[in-house]
Amino acid sequence: MTNVRGSGGYERGRSEGFIKGKQDGYAKGFEDAREFLEKPPLHDISLKWRELHCADQFGPHFGSTVVLNDRNMECLKETVKSTIWKLEISAKDQTYPVILKIFKPPMIDQKLVELNMYRRVSSLIPDLMPAIYLVLEGINNDEVWVFMEFVPPIKGQVIFTPDHFDKIIPSLAKLHAQTYNDHFYNKWDIFEDWIPRYDSDSVSAERMKNHKQTIEYLDKAMESPELKEKLRPGYNDLQRILQRGPVYFPELIQAGKSIIHNDLQTPNMGCHNIAEESWNVKFLDWEGAGFSPCWFDMFNLIGVFFAYRKDWRSDENAVIERCAPLYAAEMLKYGITFDTDPVQLYKMAYLQRVLERSLYQQLHWKLDNVKPAFLLECYLEKIKIWGKELRLY
To answer: pTM for the complete prediction?
Structure first.
């Protein structure tokens, strides 16, 4: 009987011990979770911020001690090339949003162009780019971290219409004027050989390569029933036009070159004072920057917008008639004049860019199943109408 009672006591004690252990484990887990919520472990960004004494380097920009708010970090975007974080710092009893863009290795040409725009050009055009607070190199397997001013993108602040081009063009002209022709070459120590130049051997070779591929893809497209139907009405004229390439309008070169942004979508343009009559626009994400005919950015701003927005197509000619002279007038404020009519220069820039690059991209994307060729029909229509107007055929 003693053994039975002993056995029962053992089982009871084991059961009670299990329950007690379960309760203690739950209590400890609850306590750990509460501690985690109240004081979560520091993110890698916070650790690097402290390790590299970033606050000391931020201080001069804000004129006071700066503190990183560790619990207010948001990843805005991540790709194989980079990660973009929105952080928050405190200074002078105020909080300020800050962008951290992390460039992942390898540092290919496009990344180096954007990095050099931040490292070397931001001080040249400080009112047209975000302020660069700090650049850290060699982080986590050769990453480059760039801390910069947060400028709210135009996208999301307004319902964008063609009327807003009038508010962007003054800043765009200011950008171009400050790096126009000799202004660029007088700052050669800043630009050296890292920025793509439209007249360089490498860019000219790439343009010739695209030209040959466009002709090849055009012939290949005629073997596709779907594309043949779209291309056949203007195929012969298009072939004649392409024989004149890859530089179709020397007038664009004569009109002058400058640093162009090359990707003027609303997410890539920011503004702090969007509620005011005049906007102080800052241009974001400089991956596509280059020294090229300045009118190319008018195509990037207006032409691409209308290519995607069929709902505004009926207004396109009126907008061009308004905006091209406005751009010329803004450039005149800096002493820059154009010998050719501004509307004609805009149309030349549109066709040059489409014929030297965009047409090839659309055909390549469609034929090689890379992505849909949404803009092909629009570009073909412009080549037909404006090509005849500008005597390309």
So the answer is: 0.87
